[in-house]
Amino acid sequence: MRRIAAVMSFVVIAGWVGAVPAARAGATAFPVFFQPWSAAISATAAKTIAAAAKAALADPAAPVVVTGAADTVGSALANKYMSQVRAQVVSDALVADGVAAVRVETKAIGATSAPGVATGSYAQFSRRVLIQVGN
User: Fold this and answer.
1) For residue 64, what are the CA distances in angstroms to 14, 36, 74, 90, 134?
2) pLDDT bracket for residue 123 (50, 70, 90)
3) Which of 44, 43, 31 is nearest to 133 (CA)?
4) How far is 99 from 81, CA to CA, in rounded Å?
5) Which one, of 115, 134, 112, 114, lies nearest residue 33 by Cα?
6) Are 127 and 39 in contact (CB under 8 A)?
7) How is the chain split into domains, by residue range?
8) Residue predicted with more confidence, 83 or 10
9) Which fold has domain 2-133?
10) Rounded mean pLDDT, 39-53
């Protein structure tokens, strides 16, 4: 988790916030990461989704926003689709974990990354869905 916070801080400092969904003020963020060209939920991702669902269930009035992203490998259209699929898979998992579907807003932003970075840890950071619970 510290690595994620450090990467997110670096992203903000470097000025890439426009391309990276930053957590809304007051929201609790739960990042879910994926392998290249995959929307499969790993065991680690399932635990993160379950924690987000638990937080959402603990605060029934809190909005739940799920934002999917992809790295820059491939076409813009393919990356937009991959980010949509990832967001939908995570949204479906939240609903399966008990969160009412009407509470879940699903978004897809397509490819995101540090400029010129298509592989490595920043690419991994880009292959994600960010679940935000709260305002």
Assistant:
1) 27, 25, 29, 12, 7
2) confident
3) 31
4) 24
5) 112
6) no
7) 2-133
8) 83
9) 60s Ribosomal Protein L30; Chain: A; (3.30.1330)
10) 97
